[in-house]
Amino acid sequence: MTICTQRNGTMTPFGFHGKLHVEGTLLLDEKNEPCPLRGVSTHNLSNYPKYINRDAFTQMADEWHITVIRLAMYSDLADGFHGYADGDDAHREELEDLIMKGVEYAADLGIYVLIDWHCLFDYDPNMHTDMAIHFFEKMCRKLAGYDHVIYEICNEPNQETTWEDIKKYANKVIPVIRKEDPDKVIIVGTPVWSQDVDIAAQSPLDIPNIMYTLHFYADTHREPLRDKMKAAIAAGLPIFVTEFGLCDASGSGLINEEQTNLWLKLLNENHISYVMWNLSNKDETSAFLAPTCTKEFDWKEEDLSACGKMIKTYMTK
Fold first, then answer.
1. What domains sit in the chain, N to C, each tagged with a CATH number?
2. How far from 155 is each of 19, 28, 158, 253, CA to CA, in Å?
3. I need a surface site. Which of 47, 83, 160, 196 has the fewest CB within 10 A?
4. Torsion region of 8: left, alpha or beta (phi above 0 gives left; psi -120 to 50 gives alpha)
5. pLDDT tens by residue, 36-62
6. What's the whole-number mean pLDDT along residues 151-158?
7. Which active-site residues does the annotation give?
């Protein structure tokens, strides 16, 4: 697979950095230089498939300057839409095709793409291990030559799910990925909606090229969670913020610019990659598009929500 290395006379993110790998706490490029990615996440692919289109990706790469896009494929029922694990074969094929399109669009633009097994309401990833194995085995076989791909194997384990539960799942799923694709970066969720990175740091997986998920919503998660992240980094844990919002943990409420700036300062100081939630017109604060916007691309300033306007500003600073 050829991934675009130059567009409009300039190097693309992939053209400049190449295939990524993990050393210590850092995501590094082919030159062994830190390569913190900056990007956006889709919402539920089952619910919002229309935003997986070439024009939308191109606009975000060219105008928003994203270097990574996250494809959030829910594994179970959410907002009335079946996910991959609880859907039928036809729906699974639709989601696979959608992901392949997203991967191809990202390749054409020379940006990275994060394939997210988005467990959420299925709070323990072990609930759908067999389907996760089926998905990653099938997709990794197709994507072995796509060096701009990163795998995220469990979005937000929650409720009573422990780090040992997550490790049990990861130790089953990661070997399946490694068999087909031996050296891509893999990101593993952590307990309590991917907040307990300090717990993961006490007993990390004995597998190379792994990172660990931290999620935050700025108006809910403040200094105590930043302290947990600092402790995990000090213990040597490589962290990737695969999802964050400017508002509260529900995805709604008020935007907290002060706390967002504190978070981004800390992430930038530690070369930590981050992905902002979410590309949709859902009627909630964290959606980038206004609920009245029906466009699938070619968004103007008036089409963006308050969150979308701020996120575009953060990405283009």
1. 6-316 (3.20.20.80)
2. 23, 22, 10, 22
3. 160
4. left
5. 999 999 999 999 999 999 999 999 999
6. 98
7. 156, 243
